[in-house]
Amino acid sequence: MISAKKIEEKIFKILMYISFSLLSIALVSIIAVVFVKGLGALSFKMLFSVPQGGYYLGGEGGILNAILGSIAIGSIATLLSFLYAFCIVFYINVYRFSKSQFSRSVRFFLDILWGIPSIVYGAFGFGIMLIFKIPASLLAGALTLSFVILPIMARTMDETLRMIPFEMKQAAYSLGATRFEISYKVIIKQAFPGLLTAILLAFGRGIGDAASILMTASYTDSLPTSLLRPVATLPLCVFFQLSTPFKEVQERGYAAAFVLTILMLLVSLLARLSFKSFSKYVVK
Amino acid sequence: MGAKQPIKIENLSVSYGNQKVLKSINLEIPEKGITVILGPSGCGKSTLLKCFNRIIELEENVEVEGKLFVDGEDVLHPKTDLIVLRKKMGLLLQKPQVLPMSIYDNVAFGAKIHKNMKKKEADELVEKELRKVNLWDEVKERLKSPADKLSIGQQQRLCLARGLAVEPEIILGDEPTSALDPLSAEVIEKQFLNLKENYTIILVTHMLRQAKRLADFVAFIYLGELVEFNSAAEFFSNPKDERTKRYLSGLIAG
Ligand SMILES: Nc1ncnc2c1ncn2[C@@H]1O[C@H](COP(=O)(O)OP(=O)(O)O)[C@@H](O)[C@H]1O
Ligand SMILES: [Mg+2]
């Protein structure tokens, strides 16, 4: 006879398999769809050249402008966001008690920011640019984007820092270390894998966002060469091409979406690979 | 070495929020030998120990009142230089807590904070301290490997070496053997007996038998109060207080 416990276990196992399969199917089918639909337009030329005249009507060229633009705006936004997130998170976890009222309020605000749609950040950034008469540019877009990804970065870093054993801090303080020394000699080392994850998550989110940069970074057919000029990005590149009535151009849209997806996959893969060497000294 | 004069505690009270866990402790800890702070779990032993190097301040909502003199200075005074104070004391926690770095860097960590050292000087220091705790032969081939890879017993000895490397006068131990296997525990106990010639040792324990093995002096704490302080011989053979007698005869759990 099969006991109730065994049946329970079976059911959970089956549920687990179902959810895992759904997840795998989702991932594989997304990649497959964009790949199949964009296959006709995928070529080296597309990856390594910029749009020529009439590109969006089916003319010659490629999307190098958007690939490099996305990498540029994603990296700059991630760097900026890292600077604020790092300060915030070390302040609320090392310089203040992590459970203090102040630290909890900061977390609460970050959670609210997390929930705000990125188009609102875009509108906000655009509003400020209008006031100060700043034209749409790589810098303006990266600044706006840095705020979109700040909550993800800061909260992920925060969770990592909160996982650090209290005894580890006690041990370091008892040796006479200052908060600063503890931060950079102990906490960063212990938290490194988590900090890296936070950075990559934020970069991934940033590189895929379209709404916040639509008005602030605008779009251009040339390569990103100046912080003060508009910049092309992959999400917008996908959007513009998919919204044309031409089959050919739509196909290029899917190809661009495929490139974007592969870029994200590469980033996570690199992260996984580098993880091991960074977590060598982490105390489990 | 060791503290230059007895450590004096005057009217020390500690509360967490509105829970008073230490009630006006008065105690003079001799500068030589091992003083054991004995008492059942939850009586406030760790709290007392954390006052010496003021890591009690890492806890939230804690209030400390009274005076605590080390080398004649009140360390609870707000102007006390915590770095200097903490350099005087090595702390061993219940669970050995290594730092996220190599074995070598664990030992050198504290020392390098207080002093700029050349590589050779640091190498010598690391070897010297690891020898003191009988760990050198076990780890000399893998000084660069993560400290986390050591066994718990080895980790505790590493923590002791790390504490000794800052050249403290006083060693604080908070039940440092309770997470260890019997063999490692014995090794640590032996180190303490060796070290007591040169250091003032304050050891918290709730294990009566450990206290009997190690103590030169015993302070018995019960429910946040200092019940009795005496030399070990006197404490165990001729306890004065009723509560001490009951604890020693096993009538108080703990
Ligand atoms: N950070 C803290 N916040 C609130 N209460 C605490 C804290 N640390 C310890 N306590 C309480 O204070 C009392 C004494 O604790 P402790 O000094 O750790 O005792 P012992 O080391 O003798 O077991 C216990 O009742 C414990 O629950
Ligand atoms: Mg304790």
Q: Which structural traits does this protein have?
A:
heterodimer; A: 284 residues; mainly alpha; MetI-like fold; 11 helices; B: 254 residues; alpha/beta; Rossmann fold; 6-stranded mixed sheet; 4-stranded antiparallel sheet; 10 strands; 36% helix; globular; binds adenosine-5'-diphosphate; binds magnesium ion
What's this model, at a glance?
The complex is a heterodimer of chains A (284) and B (254). Chain A contains 11 helices and no strands.
Question: How are the secondary structure elements laid out?
Answer:
The complex is a heterodimer of chains A (284) and B (254).
Chain A: H1 4-38, H2 44-48, H3 64-95, H4 101-115, H5 118-132, H6 138-162, H7 166-174, H8 179-208, H9 211-214, H10 234-242, H11 247-278
Chain B: E1 7-16, E2 19-29, E3 34-38, H1 45-52, E4 62-70, E5 73-74, H2 82-87, E6 89-92, H3 103-114, H4 119-132, H5 136-139, H6 152-164, E7 170-174, H7 182-195, E8 200-205, H8 208-214, E9 217-222, E10 225-231, H9 232-237, H10 242-248
Parallel strand pairs in B: 3-8, 3-9, 6-7, 7-8
Antiparallel strand pairs in B: 1-2, 1-4, 4-5, 9-10
Bound molecules: adenosine-5'-diphosphate and magnesium ion (MG).
